[in-house]
């Protein structure tokens, strides 16, 4: 079974204010608006599908004929993943030493036999980057002389403390003949709150250096803006950007969105439109959903996300099955989280990114050692059932 895209959703455009601040005199966000041919960054709200098309597998009520068809197909072999226990004891960012300190909202890529993991700013680094050969031992990115590297340069629109080291929830992937790293950062203030935008950068390798490209991706009508970018390249080589929209108070809840990138990963593709994938909905999700991560594994498109407050043990990770990158996406596991404090024994498991490790599906995520102290790296191992749903083999 190959994941298929639903016909284009009908959406009505609302004014995109770029990074305008709706008249707030304290705002310092850059004013970059769309060209007349651009679709709005956030479309008007519309009802999201609650069921998948009949040719997409999902859950216990799946058509048995479709299930039999899937079992008869030549799907890639799935290997039962061995548990991964991240090693190391140093909480100090020291090249050459196995790191086990703060590493929140991780993203991961593999290149030439080496894993690269990226996280929200820590240790005075804008884009803290760890490398590993085995997923177990992780060491800070360094140059040939053993000095640590901060591989990203921020754009001029970033308004941040400590030399721009206020970036978080990065997403990195190979797009075209280079690598795109996306990040969220404050572009100013609005209503007394930091107003966030997404920036894109390009580099020659997963180790960078990443230099700013294009304009900031902003939405001025939402006080907190847009955050948590994920760069995803689908099975056809098409690149996409996913992100969290922070919502508008008393008007629209937080949600997860996607839009196609151009072939060189420097901005949105000409003629592309934004699609809404999920909206805040379930009780366990609390005040928000965020940190989207998309992956395709054995013919199924998955969307993982975090819900609730990242500062609490109630933070958790849910997932949906999608008909394709543009949706529709429908929550699985009866709408309950896949990773939670209760199910994993890890406190507030979230900020997850999905990845394929040879023939296995895994999730790299953070969890508190104790709430409010340190969010550390973990890697969960998953198993795809015959109907496409997932179970956790080991929480990591």
UniProtKB/TrEMBL annotation:
<keyword id="KW-0378">Hydrolase</keyword>
<dbReference type="InterPro" id="IPR006710">
    <property type="entry name" value="Glyco_hydro_43"/>
</dbReference>
<feature type="active site" description="Proton donor">
    <location>
        <position position="290"/>
    </location>
</feature>
<keyword id="KW-0732">Signal</keyword>
<keyword id="KW-0326">Glycosidase</keyword>
<comment type="similarity">
    <text>Belongs to the glycosyl hydrolase 43 family.</text>
</comment>
<feature type="active site" description="Proton acceptor">
    <location>
        <position position="105"/>
    </location>
</feature>
<dbReference type="InterPro" id="IPR051795">
    <property type="entry name" value="Glycosyl_Hydrlase_43"/>
</dbReference>
<dbReference type="GO" id="GO:0005975">
    <property type="term" value="P:carbohydrate metabolic process"/>
</dbReference>
<dbReference type="Pfam" id="PF04616">
    <property type="entry name" value="Glyco_hydro_43"/>
</dbReference>
<feature type="signal peptide">
    <location>
        <begin position="1"/>
        <end position="20"/>
    </location>
</feature>
<dbReference type="InterPro" id="IPR023296">
    <property type="entry name" value="Glyco_hydro_beta-prop_sf"/>
</dbReference>
<dbReference type="GO" id="GO:0004553">
    <property type="term" value="F:hydrolase activity, hydrolyzing O-glycosyl compounds"/>
</dbReference>
<feature type="site" description="Important for catalytic activity, responsible for pKa modulation of the active site Glu and correct orientation of both the proton donor and substrate">
    <location>
        <position position="228"/>
    </location>
</feature>
<protein>
    <recommendedName>
        <fullName>Glycoside hydrolase</fullName>
    </recommendedName>
</protein>
């Amino acid at each position: 079974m190959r994941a298929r895209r639903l016909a284009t959703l009908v959406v009505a455009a609302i004014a995109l204010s770029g990074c305008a601040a709706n008249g707030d005199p304290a705002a310092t966000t850059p004013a970059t608006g769309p060209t007349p041919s651009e679709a709005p960054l956030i479309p008007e709200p519309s009802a999201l599908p609650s069921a998948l098309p009949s040719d997409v597998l999902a859950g216990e009520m799946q058509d048995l004929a479709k299930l039999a068809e899937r079992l008869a197909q030549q799907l890639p072999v799935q290997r039962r993943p061995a548990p991964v226990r991240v090693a190391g004891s140093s909480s100090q960012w020291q090249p050459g030493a196995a790191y086990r300190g703060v590493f929140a909202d991780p993203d991961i890529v593999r290149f030439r036999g080496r894993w690269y993991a990226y996280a929200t700013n820590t240790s005075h680094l804008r884009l803290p980057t760890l490398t590993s050969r085995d997923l177990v031992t992780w060491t800070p990115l360094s140059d040939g002389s053993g000095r640590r590297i901060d591989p990203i340069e921020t754009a001029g629109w970033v308004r941040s403390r400590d030399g721009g080291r206020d970036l978080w929830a990065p997403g990195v992937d190979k797009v075209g003949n280079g690598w795109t790293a996306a990040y969220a950062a404050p572009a100013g203030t609005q209503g007394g709150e930091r107003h966030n935008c997404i920036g894109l950068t390009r580099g020659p390798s997963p180790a960078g250096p990443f230099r700013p490209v294009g304009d900031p991706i902003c939405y001025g009508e939402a006080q907190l803006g847009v955050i948590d970018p994920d760069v995803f390249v689908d099975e056809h080589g098409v690149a996409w950007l996913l992100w969290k929209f922070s919502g508008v108070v008393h008007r629209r809840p937080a949600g997860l969105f996607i839009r196609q990138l151009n072939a060189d990963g420097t901005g949105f593709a000409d003629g592309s439109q934004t699609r809404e994938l999920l909206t805040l909905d379930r009780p366990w999700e609390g005040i928000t959903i965020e940190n989207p991560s998309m992956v395709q594994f054995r013919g199924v498109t998955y969307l993982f996300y975090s819900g609730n407050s990242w500062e609490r043990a109630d933070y958790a990770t849910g997932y949906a099955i999608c008909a394709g990158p543009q949706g529709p996406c429908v929550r699985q596991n009866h709408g309950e989280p896949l990773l939670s404090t209760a199910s994993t024994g890890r406190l507030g498991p979230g900020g997850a990114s999905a990845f394929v490790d040879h023939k296995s599906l895994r999730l790299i995520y953070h969890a508190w050692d104790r709430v409010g102290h340190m969010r550390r790296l973990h890697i969960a191992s998953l198993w795809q059932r015959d109907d496409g749903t997932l179970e956790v083999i080991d929480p990591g």
